[in-house]
Amino acid sequence: MAQGQTKGSGNLIVLCAFLVGFIGALIVGWIVFPKVLYSKKFQPIDFSHESHQDSDCESCHYFRDDGTFSGVPNIDNCIECHEEMQGDTEAERVLVEEYIQKDKPIPWLIYAWQPDNVYFSHAPHQKLDCVRCHRDVSKEKSTPPVYINRITGYSKNTMKMVECEKCHAEQGASNACQVCHK
Ligand code: HEC
Ligand code: HEC
Ligand code: HEC
Ligand code: HEC
Ligand code: HEC
To answer: Which atom of ligand 2 is least distant from the CA of 57?
Structure first.
């Protein structure tokens, strides 16, 4: 009897030790490791796409006559409405006082940023909806942080090669290496 009891509590200790180790591993894997792996960066100005929904996307993101894409807009695209403060937000004060009045470009961070060894152009993708490749920004009240992988230097939102290739295969576009790696 006495022997059986000791054995039982021994099993309990082993079980507890297992659970502690198991839960510990989950915490490290799900919470600690991603936090250590990614550095969190904030946009220089908290920009809201929702506040600007009266403007067309093309007024800030447009294709030039030569087919190249304007990308993220800068102070030239903001000055017509924000030469002076119109509201009382800190974000607008930073825009007006730190950038527009000092004629300094805004160093926006790019969520979808691709490494240098990848060639991407918006030109052949003009007919596709922005949300095929980007998150839906139209209702965003605030810019989310940008996560940069400390090992690879990639943004967490960089489109992965498999995602490019999946769509190319579906739409009959070429998947030869040199199409995307020049
Ligand atoms: C008043 C100008 C303005 C308008 C209008 C506008 N945007 Fe933007 N957009 C910005 C600015 C500034 C940024 C950079 C800050 C940020 O990422 O939010 C940006 C960033 C983005 C990005 C993030 C790209 C990346 O990977 O970093 C996407 C996608 C985007 N816009 C799509 C849209 C779409 C779709 C519309 C129309 C529904 C739109 N934008 C309308 C100014 C504008
Ligand atoms: C086929 C996928 C795809 C589609 C469709 C697409 N994008 Fe992008 N976009 C990307 C990728 C990939 C990047 C990163 C490019 C790089 O780092 O060279 C990017 C970058 C951007 C950037 C920031 C970097 C820059 O200066 O080019 C903006 C702003 C942007 N896209 C807006 C848009 C808008 C607005 C639309 C819809 C009109 C759109 N994109 C459609 C894949 C796409
Ligand atoms: C066509 C006019 C127009 C243009 C161009 C414009 N904005 Fe605005 N912006 C507004 C209006 C209107 C508001 C106020 C919206 C509100 O209070 O709901 C605003 C508000 C803001 C605010 C204050 C915070 C907020 O979201 O309400 C910031 C920051 C801002 N804009 C940044 C920018 C930047 C950066 C650009 C250039 C890329 C830009 N705006 C271009 C009209 C414009
Ligand atoms: C949602 C679908 C889709 C996604 C995602 C996509 N593409 Fe494409 N891509 C296309 C289509 C369709 C074409 C062909 C357009 C044409 O022929 O007019 C194309 C063409 C291209 C071309 C030009 C090919 C040529 O022969 O000139 C390049 C370069 C390219 N894509 C790179 C990329 C990269 C890099 C990515 C990922 C970051 C990507 N694409 C993601 C649909 C997509
Ligand atoms: C449709 C576009 C596309 C095609 C086709 C493509 N790649 Fe990629 N490739 C990418 C993108 C985007 C990345 C960066 C994102 C990632 O790592 O997933 C990448 C990343 C890579 C990397 C990793 C580089 C690094 O710095 O981590 C290698 C290696 C690579 N590609 C090799 C190839 C080879 C070999 C082929 C031909 C069999 C090929 N790719 C075809 C889009 C493409």
So the answer is: 35
